[in-house]
Amino acid sequence: MNRVIIFDTTLRDGEQAAGAGLSIREKLEIAKQLERLGIDVIEAGFPISSPGDFEAVQLIAKEIKGSTVCALAHANAEAIDRAWEAIKKAKRPRIHVFLSASDIHLLYQLKKTREEILQISRDMVARAKKYTDDVEFSPMDASRTEPAYIHQILEAVIKAGATTLNIPDTVGYAIPQELGDLIEGIFNNVPNIDKVVVSVHCHNDLGLAVANSLEAIRRGARQVECTINGIGERAGNASLEEIVMTLKTRNDFYNLTTNIDTTQIYRTSRLVSELTGFIVQPNKAIIGANAFRHQSGIHQDGVIKKALTYEIMDPRSVGIPSSSLVLGKLSGRHAFKERLAELGYILDEESFKHAFQALKELADKKREVTDRDIESLIAEELRTVSEVYHLDHVEVSCGNNNIPTATVRLIGPDGRAMADADLGAGPVDAIYKAINRIVKVPNKLTEFTVKSVTEGIDAIGEVLIRIESNGIGYTGRGADTDIIVASAKAYMNALNRLLAAKKARKE
Ligand code: KIV
Ligand code: ZN
Questions:
Q1: Which residues surround ligand 2, an ion (CB under 5 A)?
Q2: 127 CB under 6 A from ligand 1?
Q3: Please, is 395 exposed, middle or buried when counting C-beta atoms within 10 Å of its C-beta (0-12, 13-18, 19+)?
Q4: What is the pTM of this model?
Q5: Residues in the chain where the model's pLDDT stays below 70
Q6: From ligand 1's centre to the CA of 263, what distance in Å?
Q7: Is the CATH code 3.20.20.70 the one for domain 5-276?
Q8: Structurally, what CATH architecture does the domain formed by 390-506 represent?
Q9: What is d(CA 410, CA 389) in angstroms, rounded to the nearest whole number?
């Protein structure tokens, strides 16, 4: 097979990244964009882990028609049954069963023998197979497991009905040649391996996730598990855009294709960054702000004469817009809807109404509304849809001879308005204290960043924050032409994530 199956786990492993909690609505929005991107398999979540995750997977399974929708399950009956319950309405459902395989995990975590693990793997794959033909199995921590034992497990689960065998480098410990040898060993030693798809799932603890994934592909793996912007547990997962663009750009070397519409990459990356609150570093390959910017005079000279001199990819091939000047004060609903569709956003009537209103307000303050402004505005709209508390009003008085004083009014979960005020060391401190008086969730602000979405003095300011509560971090993002208001929105966003996570844990 000359095609590599792209398995996206942004909504499962990606969402496991500390602080990246997404609401159900945000997950659905990302899933729709992943479908447009041409993802073969979307891992939508881990239904047994919380009622919110269950609901998100169920909704995605119902809505997504162009990709297989996969649900993760521990190797136990309850988790598998719950996974099936969540995805049974999908056009193409897959259950992904995983169980630790390494002696380290068996000895210290599961306290089980290799024989027991073998038996459970076999039984649980058979259980999943009763529900759907499409069953994936992952022996967790495979890269630190004795290869002969992996072969035994894989042989057993193929017999039980697994159709995809995924080899995870769970802790990002492998190096390319080693992981490649493991994959080749599997092809040479596991009976009937040619009847199934071999997959890899690499973490980036040593910065080798993409290199490891590509080497596994070179040695025969035909499914790769990855995430948008490389987000994921700890240092993240292999970055989808880097793998896909390497296969495309170096087709002369790999001679392999994917189903991905690469022109959707940039949009997908922006959406995931906006909704998770994880900024993409400027020098990030493929989608970083500097990825196609030439600074040195010699390079600029070369690119002007012939782009090929210093550009190995055309920025348009990943969907980076050549010009992003779009709308203004006089733009109508139709033009806005069209631009949104071009950017990959299809909103329901209610959200569109809010977004259009926000566009008009923005165009009143800002002469030119760019694509980046629109992305920021839509992300703001999506964030407010799933709020527990909504910021209705914020007002600050400050100055060089004033004690900063803030008044806020929030709309609570029961629709009731609550107002309070407080003083602070600065305007943001005063706002956060006033909000705390209403929401009453102890937390500590650990990071605070402000940046502008576009150039110009009238640009939208974007505030990114991180708060910590009981040792867990939550990111928050807020955008507004007034950075004090953006700061308040970012805090509400982080608090709403915290409250949603708390509720999910309780349930
Ligand atoms: O990293 C890992 O091992 C996983 C498994 C659930 C596949 O995420
Ligand atoms: Zn993982």
A1: 13
A2: no
A3: middle
A4: 0.84
A5: 322-326, 385
A6: 29
A7: yes
A8: 2-Layer Sandwich (3.30)
A9: 6
